[in-house]
Design brief:
The protein has 213 residues and is mostly helical. 85% of the residues lie in helices and 0% in strands.
């Protein structure tokens, strides 16, 4: 497969999983009480942390999970529970805790698990595995494709996030508050879906293993 076409395919797949456009209302809900400067710091932190986490988990994710005896299914369930707790906080108080720093909010939950969740990590791992055996230098090619895809997708996500300030101005304070509550329900639905996916994947894997015994 041509390198450029392989890279384009990897970028498209990862962009669909990260889904920055679909997550914009959720980002609005999570940061609706922040000033523009504070929000920019949050988004900058989210992109930097997200890129680092994605690359680290892409190259060593399997080993890290094996080291602690954690399955990818457990990772999905944990991410779902985390998002569920955050959504409940928003529904009850209307926002997250106001004392949190940009680093804290940007890292969790925006960087992980919203931007870099189990799906993004799995997609990058698959990209690495898909191209590493194509030719003698396939390993280097697969690494370069995975890294470039991650950089391009999160770079595009950063640009998209930077332009969300216009959405805040359009909504106004009341509109942003309403969106925050509504999006909390969506976050909770995503959280439940993460949990259900993790449980269903675990049951499927267990069923396959029992069938092989």
């Amino acid at each position: 497969m041509d390198y450029i076409s392989a890279l384009v395919k990897a970028v498209i797949a990862l962009f669909i999983i990260v889904d920055p456009f679909g997550n914009i209302p959720i980002f609005v809900g999570l940061t609706e009480n922040m000033t523009d400067d504070y929000r920019k710091k949050v988004y900058n932190t989210a992109i930097i942390v997200g890129l680092i986490l994605l690359l680290v988990f892409s190259f060593t994710g399997t080993e890290i999970l094996q080291l602690f005896g954690i399955s990818l299914e457990s990772f999905e369930v944990a991410g779902g529970i985390l998002l569920l707790i955050i959504s409940i906080r928003i529904l009850i108080s209307g926002t997250r805790e106001k004392v949190e720093s940009p680093e804290s909010v940007g890292a969790v939950p925006i960087a992980m698990p919203l931007l870099v969740g189990p799906g993004a990590i799995t997609t990058t791992i698959i990209t690495l595995q898909t191209y590493q055996n194509i030719q003698p230098n396939g390993a280097a090619i697969s690494i370069s494709i995975a890294v470039l895809a991650a950089v391009i997708v999160l770079g595009l996500t950063w640009v998209i996030l930077r332009y969300t300030n216009g959405l805040y101005k359009f909504l106004g304070k009341t509109g942003a508050m309403v969106i925050a509550r509504v999006m909390a329900l969506l976050i909770s639905a995503i959280a439940i879906q993460y949990i259900l996916d993790g449980v269903s994947h675990f049951m499927f894997t267990t069923h396959v293993l029992l069938g092989l015994i």
